[in-house]
Amino acid sequence: MAMAEHDDILSDAEREALAMVTAPPAKTSLVLVVDDEPKNSQALSDYLMAKGIDCVIANGAQAALDYLQKQPRIGLMITDLRMEPQDGLELIRQVRESERAALSIIVVSGDTDVKEAVDVMHLGVVDFLLKPVDLDRLMELVKKELKIE
User: Fold this and answer.
1) CB 48 within 8 A of CB 31
2) Could you read off the pLDDT of 65-123 as tens digits, one per residue?
3) In this structure, are strands 104-109 and 74-80 parallel, antiparallel, or unpaired?
4) In whole angstroms, how far apart are CA 41 and each of 49, 60, 145?
5) Contact at 8 Å (CB) between 126 and 146?
């Protein structure tokens, strides 16, 4: 008996129910943590993971852009500004010009000047946190952006 005929035995509702059983559960959003200092991104990622937030780490701007192209589940990017060879400001500009332009972005930076802070805010970031990061505040922002209760 051909497969096509077999398919017709199922009603649409049954087929949907079956799909629900076989489909993996919808994945929650991922947070992309970007820092050219692996210990920083690892610490931030460990903290978020401990709070039940799925993360991926990119060690620099180029890796971050690659992830954003390949991984549609990324719903938020947390990036450092001071990075080599390409800084966080440039990364944010590139994201804003890409198909991921609407991505929520939180900036964390060890030091900054007013001009840089203003430039970043003009690029529509959610917030700008100075290091050492206030983790409670960060968690609040992450939950809000990912719409987690």
Assistant:
1) yes
2) 999 999 999 999 999 999 999 999 999 999 999 999 999 999 998 887 888 888 999 99
3) parallel
4) 12, 10, 19
5) no
As a whole number of angstroms, the distance between CA 49 and CA 45 comes to 6
The tokens describing 46, both together, are: 């460990």
Question: Contact at 8 Å (CB) between 92 and 123?
Answer: yes
Residue identified by tokens 């983790």 is: 135
143 phi and psi angles, rounded to 5 deg: -60, -40
Side chain identity at 114, as an amino acid letter? V
- In angstroms, the CA 125 to CA 86 distance is 18
Identity of the residue numbered 124: G
